[in-house]
Structure formats: C-alpha cells, structure tokens
Inverse folding.
C-alpha cells in the first residue's frame, strides 16, 4: 500500500511542480513578498497531498515562541518534508540552500523566484560571508532566514556537525534565533521513494537573544536545545 501511495504522490507532485514553476516565472514582475505568497501555494499543496495521499500529518508545538520580528531559524534537517513545509509554517523566509538546487529543472527555476540564499558549500569562509551579507539584506527586507546548521540531511537518531553560519548571521545582525526540532525523517526518509504514514512533530523552542554573544556560543546553545528536544519527540511513524 505504501508503494502505491508513494507512486501516486510522486505523479501528483511532479504535476504540481511543473504548474507552479510556470506561476513562479510569471510572478517575476511582482514584489518579493507577493512572489512568495504566489509560489508557496506549491508548498501548501504538496503538504496537503502528503496528508491525504501518504497519510503524513503534522503537529506544531511552541508556535507561541515565535518573536514578532524577523529571526534566524536554525532547524534539524532530516528530509525533504521540512524544506517544503517550513516555507508556510513560519513567516516569509529565505532559506540557505546549496547552489546546485537552482539548476534542477522546474523546481530550481521556481526556487530562484523566491530569492533564496544560495551558496557554494565548498567555498569555506567565503560561503559564511555570503550567508551573513545576504542574510542581513533579507532580514532588512522583513524576511526571516532559515539555516540547517548540520548542512545536509541527517538520518533519525544521528547528529551532524553544527556549523556556525546561522549563529554568525544572528550575532552580526542582532536578530534572535529560533531553534526547531522535528522528526520528519521517520516517515519521509532521505532519498527514499517510499514514504510511510504518521504524524510529524515540529517543536519550536524559545527565541534566543543574540546581543553580546559569539557565533560559537550561540551555535552551542542551539545544538544543545535541538538535540535534547529530539530525544523528547514522540515517534512519528504510525503503527502498521
């Protein structure tokens, strides 16, 4: 059953990707915030499909912790689910992504219209400088910035090395940090065609003020909260 559901989902998601890529290209004359609202109709649609075709639901804890000004979100990265869902679960944001994603047919073309912060992950310190420079511009425009500090998707139960890029941006801009834990990888595994039904928990931690704190100190604080919260999340996968 999961195989059939996943096949149907893939076909419908592909059709949505082509459709919204066209909308994204046509949205070019509009402002950044208007383009965002138009293009993220795709994100709402995909997560709706995930619920009704795959049986993947979600709950959000800690929404009251979101500050009333642009912030830097530092989140766990386990799957493709959060890269889609976070663009409408949070205020309008600019995600930090690897540059290669912009070259993916249709998907990458639409992503360009969202003006993400695309970096060359092999550029070392220059990539960090780009995150800070572009991130400060986005915050000034009223966008939040989404950073996955582990840099790549990490399997459930595992932990990657936390980079300081997000902490550095927050320290330089003065924007608060919002740490986020979730267990999407348990039902939507990395690079897996077959998804499983279940309920993803997205847990939003208290905002961390950044004035007077170093990037390294902020990164350690975020890492400690996220990893502790990951251990507290309930299982996502439904019992078969």
């Amino acid at each position: 059953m999961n195989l059939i559901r996943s096949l149907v989902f893939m076909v419908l998601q592909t059709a949505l990707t082509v459709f919204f890529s066209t909308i994204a290209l046509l949205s070019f004359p509009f402002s950044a915030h208007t383009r965002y609202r138009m293009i993220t109709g795709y994100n709402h649609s995909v997560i709706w499909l995930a619920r009704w075709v795959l049986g993947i639901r979600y709950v959000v804890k800690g929404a009251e912790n979101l500050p009333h000004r642009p912030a830097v979100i530092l989140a766990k990265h386990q799957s493709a689910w959060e890269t889609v869902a976070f663009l409408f679960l949070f205020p309008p944001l600019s995600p930090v992504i690897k540059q290669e994603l912009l070259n993916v047919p249709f998907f990458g073309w639409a992503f360009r219209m969202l003006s993400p912060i695309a970096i060359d992950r092999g550029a070392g310190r220059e990539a960090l400088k780009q995150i800070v420079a572009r991130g400060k511009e986005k915050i000034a425009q009223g966008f939040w910035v989404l950073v996955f500090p582990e840099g790549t998707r990490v399997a459930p139960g595992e932990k990657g090395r936390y980079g300081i890029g997000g902490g550095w941006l927050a320290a330089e801009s003065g924007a608060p940090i919002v740490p986020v834990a979730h267990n999407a990888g348990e039902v939507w595994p990395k690079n897996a065609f077959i998804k499983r039904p279940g309920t993803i928990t997205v847990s939003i931690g208290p905002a961390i003020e950044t004035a007077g704190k170093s990037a390294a100190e902020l990164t350690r604080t975020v890492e400690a909260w996220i990893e502790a919260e990951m251990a507290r999340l309930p299982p996502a996968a439904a019992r078969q």
Notes: The mean pLDDT is 93. The radius of gyration is 17 Å. The domain at 2-232 is CATH 3.40.1130 (Glycerol-3-phosphate (1)-acyltransferase).
